[in-house]
């Protein structure tokens, strides 16, 4: 049961997280146009990524009987008689997945003989060990490593991943509180997740006001370095400049005339 839940987290939330990180990196590079740096843009990007993750998981399971998560944990979806499940049965499993995720699915998986949830019972499928045996987890780990390499090389790496976590910690608490109020549980306060600060991205750095850089002319102006910066919009008084002392003149003074009193 824990393996199936972990496989589900990888298939839906793990893949959606990586796709959202790719979207953030595309926004920073100027390629993304449908989502902006705000709450509505992030929600659109996250929901779009989650939808793509669901479609990818369905196609993989319908074609091969396994997803990235199931392959990693050595699981396989097939008919009860051991045959290939096919797209129709897998689609029925996915349609009832939201009901199973609420509560009934884990209970049925624990009490039924083949560990089937509601979607499995209605579609006639079962999740069992992969026929690839030990090679299935190895192949799954290799694929996950490939996805991680692609994210680091083309999806922004750790920077975009932490940006997604930061946006999630800011947006999700509000939606969780609204959802709890809608079902009558009252407001649930979820504190944001503290994350390390990152260097500003190229898109964010464009919004910062340029700082004034002193020029050579300013440094050559007399008294420029001595003038204090304006405080509260009032210019500081200019420094007093004392006049140079008068130098003694080299012109000889007139001699006193004869008969003048000494």
Characterise the protein shown here.
There is one protein chain. This protein is mostly helical and 262 residues long. The protein has a domain at 2-157. The protein is built from ten helices and two strands, in the order αααβαααβαααα. A two-stranded antiparallel ribbon has the order 1-2. The longest helix is centred in the first third of the chain and has 27 residues, at 2-28. The chain is globular. The N and C termini lie far apart (125 Å). Residues 31-35, 200-213, 215-236 and 247-262 have low confidence and may be disordered.
Radius of gyration: 36 Å
- The shape is globular
Structural class: mainly alpha
In the predicted model, the low-confidence regions spanning at least 5 consecutive residues are 31-35, 200-213, 215-236, 247-262
Give the terminus-to-terminus CA distance. Answer: 125 Å
Tally of DSSP β-strands: 2
Mean pLDDT, nearest integer?
Answer: 75
Strand content: under 5%
What is the number of helices? 10
- Secondary-structure element series: HHHEHHHEHHHH
Arrangement of strands in the largest sheet: 1-2
Could you describe the largest sheet, including whether it forms a barrel? 2 strands, antiparallel
